[in-house]
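Sequence in, structure out. Go.
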Amino acid sequence: MSSAGKNIPNDSAAGHLSGQSVFLNDVLPARSELLVDFIGSPVAHGRIRSVDLSVAAKVPGVVALLTHQDIPGHNRLGSIVKDEHLLADEIVEYVGDPIVLIAAETRSAIEAAKKSVLLDIEELAPIFCIDDAIAAESFIGPRRVIERGDAAAALAVAEHRLQGSLVTGGQEHFYFESQTAIAEPGEYGRMTVHSSTQHPTEVQEAVAEILGVRFNHVVVISKRMGGAFGGKETQAAAPAAMAALAAVKTRRPCRIALGKDDDMRCTGKRHPFQSRWTVGFDSSGRISALAMDLYSNAGCSCDVSPAILERAMLHADNAYFIPNFYVTGRLCKTNLPSNTAFRGFGGPQGVVNIENIIEEIALHVGKDALDVRQLNCYGIHERNITPYGQRIENSTLPALFVQLRQSSGYDQRQREIAEFNQASPTHVRGLSMTAVKFGISFTNKTLNQANALVSIYTDGSVMVSTGGTEMGQGLNTRIRQIVADELGVEFGDVMVAPTSTDKNNNTSPTAASSGTDLNGAAAVNACRKLRERLAEFAAPLLADPQSGLMPSAGNIRFAEGLVYDSRRPERQMPFRSLVLRAYQERINLGERGFHATPGIDFNRDTGKGTPFYYFTNGVAASEVEIDRFTGELKVSRVDVLIDAGRCINPGIDRGQLSGGFIQGMGWVTTEELKYSSLGELLSHSPTTYKIPNIGDLPEVFNLEFLHNSENSVNLLHSKALGEPPLLLAISVWTAAKQALSSVSPDAASRLSLPATGETLLLAMELTQSIPVAVR
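Output:
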């Protein structure tokens, strides 16, 4: 029986629930292992005058104190541009910027050393926000443009025009397992690093360059992560390099495991954005032109910010056809930790703008916002070309809108909400339906590749190694299902090895929702080579001497642990018997597979091409209720309908759908990053940073998959679901905006993101008149 399509539990679920799963910091300390930590800058921007280590060096238990002068290789990191130092050499760029590395026997020795190091830093003027960066012309990289038609000319003749701006805040990854790495020095300059990372190859290369050795001297292993959400795509490299540097200098195993507060203070977040837009439309609400400038707060260095800004620009149209389109993007350099990848990778910051604009258009023309969305929605056979020139194939967007509008009872509920808002003096409600058209693929063509190693053992069991990393999203479970079906064995016969750079070279990060797409396809490629080889070997073994029928390799089938002739199914043998005999006859039972996503071709200079292999589409209707006196927002009901193609694992996909939505809900409502005037993060712990908890879940939470039997472009007809659901939570924010508009349209137009209780309360307090008796 096929494994694909079945609700097989995540293969780590039982271990996680019972506490038997081993995360990196659960690994028992090696003999003579040292703890590693660092001393960061106390100021956001400054020039280092001196560093005095003399007192700290005498602290009992301190084994090594290292600065940039102790780095044997290059003191530079970076995925796109190597503009970030491991240890500050002259200039510090943010509060917490590492200056001194400490390797010690105990945590108490580290804390004592931190208090003993004397830093003399000349403070320089910092920049923290987008407005100040724009004023100072503090940018990273060039201005980017994506355009179609003539937006300026179309805006000039538009029947109606609106303009405005939108500020969207950042978001903390809040993974349960903080940045962690263990480095073990080996012989001849070799280093083994166990890292909690989404990108073992990047960690391998960063460690090698810091240590001044060739890449083949470093092996990076990643068994699992306790969450990542993009925060360990690039930013796991620095902690791993710190542990490796300390290990080289002390010749002892070294471990770094940041505490939650330090991790939140010193790592990058989701990029805050600011948009400035002008839109033209007619009296029906049909958009004729859009001009938008996007500004992203990149923090102190490049990281992957250019790619994130690019995806935001590529998603600025979202689900809507805009004939005249002009969007620009700039990266602002500020004195905050370098902002980085986060689930959605710029897509949410792009999509929320057009959804906000549609709300404004609906208010202006006096129509329901859903009517405006459906009017502007991409078509199936026409109005189906994106501003960057990609044709939308097999579009399910119109059908999704129609189906969820009906199944959620949208129109009747809007009438009931209007009556409630007129009658209630204490609460106000809103209901909104938004869409997502999320492009699946890395926009960097090079990264759309993967390799896999499949090994069959003589007892018929199978081991798979890929470049994909497991962070709780069920990648390994899906890989096991895919390989089991390809070889015709049971799910339990297949295991997935920890990801390791000595088995899978030059890997892409597990990101862009493409972990299963890429690594699963590479594993399929390896399995099919093995199957063809085994079929050739099996054909003569399954011959029927009496009939004289000689099966060909093309007639050999692998299913349910058996190998048989499709024309004479009774001629069969167990898979394990076949592989044992193949081994005895010296048939190769191991194979490497490779996959490169076809058809990806995007020109960044022209802003034209096909950056995505396909799109995952979905819609969500969210209803909220806001307390007029406290600003407290409750999400009372959510209905989600998403086109997932054919699910490889419906249960895991449902988990991705619900988890992604709730994480997005946090971004648009309660998760607010607060900084001091000196650039220090104030909301750096669970007590000051509010992620959604069980009490924030919608009382009614309906999740449905659209059956799309025509989806044939991807692996097993499936579609990626890692990131798209997060963007559907924008419907919660637009629902809050709609609720606020019934109190004050002006306040609704000024609503920023996140829509915290404080933000909503202040907006209502400034505009509503509440009787004294009620107070």
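Check: The chain has 20 helices and 29 strands. Confidence is low (pLDDT under 50) at residues 769-775.
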